[in-house]
Amino acid sequence: MNRFRVLVTDEVDPRGVELLRAEPALDVDERPTRPWQELRGEIGDYDAFVGRSATRLPAELLRDAKRLRVIGRAGVGTDNIDLAAATALGIAVINAPSGNTIAVAELFFGALLSFVRHLPFAFESMRAGRWDRSDLLGTELSGRTIGIVGLGRIGGEVATRARAFNMTVVAYDPYVQRDRFGLFRAERADRLDDLLSRADVLTVHTPLTDETRGMIDADVLSRLPRGAIAANFARGGIIDESALAAALAGGDLAGALLDVYTTEPLPADHPLRRANNVLLTPHLGASTAEGQRNVAIDVCIAVRDALMSGQLSGAVNLAGVDRARWRDLRGALYLARQEAAIARAMLAERGTRAPEQLTLHFGRQFVGADSLLGSAAAEGVLSAIMNNDRINIVNARERATERGIAIAIVPLPPTDDGHAVRVTVSGDGRQLSIGGTATPGAPPRITRIGDFKVDVAPRRTLIVLTNADVPGVIGQVGTVLGSAGINIAEYHQARMTQGGEALAAISVDGTVSEQVRRRLLDVGSVRSATVVVGDGQDADIFE
């Protein structure tokens, strides 16, 4: 069994760390939070990193992480991680998007209620011995309109609670289906502008991306009704803080609620600290005992499974499918990878120097997972070409594009087998298609190599021979493999016509050396011998 080393930092909740330590194959080291520069000398010793937001993981550090397979972020955001660099290096980045959902939604409403009822001032006055009841006239949420930008997990929870306060909910999110708005009884705004003029309270619940950075700027804030409240409990930088400070100072806004900031900790001289009409909290969104426990457990389970079985359903830098479907897809992913590897290797035997085109055809059962299957096929094409580089399902598409390999992903006709996966690789005027099926709960099978119908599992090591259809070939091949101590698991012989060209697909245990391959070529009627090795994670797919 392989052993893996895991580095844990940033005071990840112990209950998550215990799950890692319980796995015998994992060696876990806990370290206090340190500047990333101090990690450079040791990060290369680890297969996985687990932390929160305190430790930055820039490209400079990730390039030193030669063994790193997976980064686990115990929380929602990943902006402390150079995601582009991690992807290029083939490092999966996994977060815990749902563990602190309730914590953030509750904090938002706690802040909103505190603000509209002046609770911070009331508390301060009581501590000072005053009774300022007449100066603390508040307002109610009932009957007000809340505008939610981003109707994902947290946005949905905010919408649910807003309805409980008898608020009208209007939401803007171009990336979710229409029926989700109905689920939360939220009116759908087709454009951000459609939401702004109605929002007594504007709250953002989106990730920080190039699209959302500075989204709520001076122009957007000017479109809110006079006396509105703006809130950001998502990621710092979504609201332009300079524009917000100006709107607050000018009296256009009644107030602002902020838990996250462009620069954290918030500088002591920041103008928002001096404003009387803001409620600021120091990034407390996930800071509940339950939230920290949940995100730690979620991400540690995901990191453990990524190391032990290649389960990457939670990777944010990979086209995602849910955890249950990933299990059903493992055979299909393995099949797509091996089909592409076989096609590339056989074309190389025929003189193709480099692949130029990769086409993946998929059955109807794989709709929604087709991009992931394309990544697996790209990995298969590149695995032997770039064997000195870290190539895996995370970065294979990107690396294939860099090498000028065009990738097409095409659905098969509805009349075809819904579990079919077919890969075609072409280059230098040649092309070869490999087809198969991958049914959940059963080992994948290769059913066609070029024009030949076969039926063999692409497990461990696969030998593909082309030969003249003459008597005695199977016996001679078996003798060569047997004398080398190589056990045959499956042997499928196919031919187009009697006495014409034949093809053998042979699944074997163990390693087929170059010397053994050449001995196979010495068998008189054998014309080509291609050997393709599995990726080392196939045992539980076939057993």
Describe this structure in words.
By secondary structure, the protein is of the alpha/beta class. It folds into four domains: 4-99 and 290-309, Rossmann fold (3-Layer(aba) Sandwich); 101-280, NAD(P)-binding Rossmann-like Domain (Rossmann fold), CATH 3.40.50.720; 321-450, D-3-phosphoglycerate dehydrogenase, domain 3 (60s Ribosomal Protein L30, Chain: A, 2-Layer Sandwich), CATH 3.30.1330; 460-543, ACT domain (Alpha-Beta Plaits). Helix content is 33%, strand content 22%. The protein has 18 helices and 22 strands. Strands 8-7-6-9-10-11-12 form a seven-stranded parallel β-sheet, sandwiched between helices. It has a six-stranded mixed β-sheet with strand order 14-13-15-16-17-18, covered by helices on one side. Helix 1 (14-21) runs parallel beside helix 12 (289-309), helix 4 crosses helix 6 (153-164) and helix 13 packs parallel to helix 14. The two termini are 16 Å apart.
Descriptors:
543 residues; 22% strand; Rossmann fold; six-stranded mixed beta sheet; seven-stranded parallel beta sheet; 18 helices; alpha/beta; 60s Ribosomal Protein L30, Chain: A; 22 strands
